[in-house]
Sequence to fold (124 residues):
Amino acid sequence: MANEVMRVMCFQKDPLVDTDGVIDFSALEDMTIVGVSLCATVFTGTPTGFTIDIQDDGTDVIAALAANTALTPGTWKSVHMGGTEDAVHIAAGSEVEVDLNLTGGSTPTAAFTLVIWYLGGAQG
Fold:
């Protein structure tokens, strides 16, 4: 019987330009990502696009999650959370990286909140 526990990680970032690795950490346990929410709190430079990519050891596993309007969250949801996406498994010890992508505007920046819901703990 599985003994999964829902865990939540929340990251808040001050205004940043288009940057790879704005969040970077080592997975301390096996993680099965079941939901992601992204919300820009403030834009400067009027970007026309704001997305993130979540990578597992350098490979995009969730790509181009968009939140193009300030204070309007963008979401990625697996079937576990009532969505249509397949859950994403990340092994313990993997490097997890979040890349910030901004397009358009004049030297755009975004301050944002990113929330990741995942199943962790003993998963066997």
